[in-house]
Amino acid sequence: MSNDIALNGNSARLNIPSIEEQRMFLMQQGTKEAIEQLEQNLSVPFYGLFNAAIEKYPKEHLLDSGYKTPDHELVYELFEIVKTKTGFSDKDLATEIFGFNSDRMIRYYKTGQRNIKQALWHRFLIMTGFKKQRVLKVIGYF
To answer: How do residues 47-88 score in pLDDT, each as one tens digit?
Structure first.
């Protein structure tokens, strides 16, 4: 697609890619950024500290189907492990891992006042390297 423009009596022709071309460019850029992040993920420190904590509790919180909320004691313990190794505060956990604006929900999850939702728990387990990150196959650009 091209557009003619005029400025101060001078004209020029702009070649503007189609919406489809722009969309594909954005998808390609996003994919390249995702690949770069996945490669960076392979070089973070390995601590191996979750296994002992998780062994003490039922395992249904690790399942994709048949999920049951983890015991709040386990949530507390794993959050504290991450805070100790990263130097994060509850506020940092809230913003960096869960995208929350405050640490209120972190306190609720740790005390059992609220149950952590499956998507948030699995995000936490993925971001802490305990669960494999899934990459979805694109079947087409519609």
So the answer is: 988 988 889 998 889 888 888 999 999 999 999 999 999 999
pTM over 0.90: no
Q: Quick one: tokens of 17?
A: 């890619």
The CA dihedral of 72, 93, 120, 139, to the nearest 10 degrees, is -160
**105-119 as b/e, with b when 16 or more CB fall inside 10 Å?**
bbeebbeeeeebeee
Q: How many CB atoms lie within 10 A of CB 32?
A: 10
Alpha-carbon distance of 141 to 70, in angstroms, equals: 38
Question: The tokens 């650009």 sit on which residue?
Answer: 141
8 Å CB contact between 72 and 112:
yes
DSSP state of 64: S
Which one, of 114, 136, 134, lies nearest residue 64 by Cα?
134
116-to-11, 47, 71, 75, 81 alpha-carbon distances in Å: 60, 24, 10, 9, 17
Integer Cα distance of 46 and 129 in angstroms: 8
Type of residue numbered 83: K
4 vs 15: CA distance, rounded Å: 9
Q: What pairs with residue 7 in β-bridges?
A: 10
